[in-house]
Design brief:
alpha+beta, 7 helices, about 40% helix
Amino acid sequence: MLVKSDAILLKKTPYADNSAILHIYTRSHGMQSFIAQGMHGKSGKAAMLQPGNLLELIFYFQSNKNLKRIKEMQLMQGFRGFDQNPVRLQILMFCLELSSKCLPEEQEDLHTFDFIRDQLLNLAEETELTWFPVQFLLKFAKINGLGLQLPIDGKKGFQLETGTAIFRDTRMNPMQHLEENEIMTCKVLETGHIPQMTIEERRTLTEKLLYYFKVHLFPEQELKSFPILMEVLG
């Protein structure tokens, strides 16, 4: 049957001659894989099917077929694409890769789709990019039911593996829990303000929040985009 849906292109993998396998998150049918032909050169299709693009699709859906086919597509209304800012593009790759590891196959979740769509729209227009990855991690954790229940007591830390408040213990691995200043930074970010942190402190906090995701959602996998992201953010 024909299905019309908003969609987010998460990943494109070259396949055969001028074809590609597309991993697309659709609003109506969750994660789906498509095959697209005519991907070489500067054709309109090739330019449109870039990771991160927000699309309006009409596609043939058959539950027993692994690879679907697209009948028609266009950019989502109001979406103008991403510029070539290298920091913005690497943040985009990070958000897409993290999303792809957290999303279940072929499962509709309108709330999650709308969240990722809105975050990508914000990223395309955002001028202050430094804290975007941390903000994305904190917000996406809530969407996935992993919202950090941060302690109010300044004498406590937050253990990432259990997701619980703890009393600080110098014998603990520092990468497995949030310190008081990191907890305060997360709380400041939740209010929409920009915290004061050194570059190294921000990098450490980002790494810890990503560790939190890995422990709870994809423990055996790594994000290839993360080391590059840390390089371009400084």
